[in-house]
Amino acid sequence: MKTLIIGMGALGGLIAARLRAAGLPVWLATRDAEQADRLRASGLRVTGMGGAVTVQATAVAPWDAYGADDKFELVLLATKAHDAIEAAPRLSLLLGPNATLLPIQNGGVPQMLAERLGNCVLGGLSNLGATMEAPGIYEQRNAGHLLIGELAGGESERTERVHRWLERAVEVRATRNLRGAVWSKLLVNCSVTTIGAIAGGTMRGYMASPEGSELFNRTYDEALSVALATGAQPEPMLVEPIPPGWHADGIASEGRDAWIAKVLTAYGDVTPSMLQDFRRGRRTEIEFINGYVVNMAREVGLDAPINAAIVETVHAITSGRFAPNPRLLVQVLRARTHNDQHHGKTASMS
Question: What is the pTM of this model?
Answer without folding.
Answer: 0.86
